[in-house]
Amino acid sequence: MTKLYALSTCPWCKKTKKFFNDNSIPFEHVDVDTATGDQLDQALAEVDRLVGERAFPITIINGTVIVGYKPDDFLEALRNGK
Asked: How far apart are CA 62 and CA 11, in angstroms?
């Protein structure tokens, strides 16, 4: 499972979403800046737990946490999870 925490206005977040879409890699994502209520609280708590800071994008692939737009790291985590 691939999960992405992003900001709707972040260019690196947009590139990350595009990378997954262009490569037909299924993923779930939360745009933290447009989330509200419980979804926002849960997303921020998870971001803080995973990396201890509010840096985006944050991608979790098969338990590997990747901060930033790093296509090579995405592919490696996907390969290692199979």
From this structure: 24
